[in-house]
Each structure stands twice: as structure tokens, then as C-alpha cells.
Write a structure and sequence with these properties.
The chain is flat and about 55 Å long. It has 5 helices and no strands. It folds into 2 domains: 28 residues, no CATH class; 50 residues, no CATH class. It starts with 8 loop residues before the first helix and ends in a 10-residue tail after the last helix. By secondary structure, the protein is mainly α. Helix 3 runs antiparallel to helix 4. Keywords: Kinase, Serine/threonine-protein kinase, Transferase. GO terms for molecular function: protein serine/threonine kinase activity. This is Serine/threonine protein kinase ATM.
């Protein structure tokens, strides 16, 4: 059953790749630190901000909108409420108008 159902060749390849990465890692006696914010202390928030700055395009949000977003993410509200609020503030709710605009659905005239 070489390469068929129940084949381990894909996993073996992944394991070899992972072992190569691990073997290439340098181990030191230095303390671990997070170099992307908060004085070397890792937080989910600092990681989010790092990824946001690195991979998302510049925004035209106002300072007030940015502060509102910060307040939303600091909220103790349930995560579903936080995400909904964030999407609403950025006009990213999957409303019919937004879905039409993005080409996710077609207008009734085109259907």
C-alpha cells in the first residue's frame, strides 16, 4: 500500500522536516524574552499588535475609532459580543450590502 490509504509517507516527510528545524536551533543559557513589546514580556496583545503592524495594510481609521477598538478588545463582554462590536465598528458585518460589494453574493438582478 505504498502511498495509498494508510500511508505514512506524508507524516514521515513532515517529521523529517520538523527534526531538521529542531536540530538547527541554537540553545543558549540566556533568559527568554519577547522583543516585540512590553519590555521583553510576552502578551497576546503584544503579539496581536506585532502581527497587525507587520501584515495588515495601513488604515485610514480616526484616532477616535482606534480608541474605540481598543476599548472593545479590553471589554469583559463575551468574545462573541466583542467580535460583533469590532466588525460593526469597522463596517465588516456580513450584511447583504457588504456581501454584494465584496462579490460574495450576486444581486437579485444578476441571479
Amino acid at each position: 500500500m505504498r502511498g495509498g490509504v494508510g500511508s505514512w509517507s506524508g507524516e514521515e516527510s513532515s517529521n523529517r522536516e520538523l527534526l531538521g528545524i529542531i536540530e538547527a536551533a541554537t540553545i543558549t543559557k540566556e533568559d527568554d524574552s519577547w522583543k516585540y513589546g512590553n519590555g521583553g514580556v510576552y502578551t497576546v496583545s503584544s503579539h496581536y499588535l506585532y502581527l497587525y503592524a507587520k501584515f495588515l495594510p495601513p488604515t485610514s481609521l480616526t484616532t477616535a475609532s482606534i480608541e474605540s477598538i481598543r476599548q472593545i478588545w479590553r471589554s469583559w463582554a463575551p468574545s462573541k459580543v466583542v467580535v460583533f462590536s469590532w466588525q460593526a465598528l469597522l463596517d465588516r458585518l456580513p450584511s447583504k450590502a457588504n456581501l454584494l460589494y465584496r462579490g460574495v453574493i450576486r444581486g437579485e438582478a444578476e441571479a
